[in-house]
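Key result, reporting period 2: structure in, sequence out.
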């Protein structure tokens, strides 16, 4: 699992690579909560993400709720397999996707 962040003013892109699961989600969550202070536009780039567990979905939902009060959050470049997870869990209705 790899997390790469790039910021431009109040916009931040977080690129996720590999798998997000219960083994690494605590580290990712702590890192994101520290980094998003002052961010108004948050983008998750999932081009290289292979798998996301329910723990990862929970963190995305948490980030969505946080960003709702101060700006926006979008998920982009989701591959077919990961999008399938979002669809099966109903998260396609809860999160904003850019295709």
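The corresponding designed sequence is given below.
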């Amino acid at each position: 699992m790899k997390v790469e962040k790039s910021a431009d003013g109040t916009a931040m892109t977080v690129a996720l690579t590999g798998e997000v699961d219960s083994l690494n989600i605590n580290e990712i969550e702590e890192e994101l909560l520290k980094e998003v202070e002052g961010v108004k536009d948050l983008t998750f780039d999932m081009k290289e993400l292979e798998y996301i567990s329910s723990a990862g979905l929970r963190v995305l939902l948490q980030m969505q709720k946080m960003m709702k009060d101060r700006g926006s959050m979008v998920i982009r470049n989701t591959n077919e397999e990961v999008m399938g997870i979002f669809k099966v869990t109903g998260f396609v209705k809860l999160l904003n996707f850019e295709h």
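Helices lie at 25-35, 54-68, 80-89. Residues 44 and 75 are 5 Å apart (CA to CA). This case is discussed further under Risks and Mitigation.
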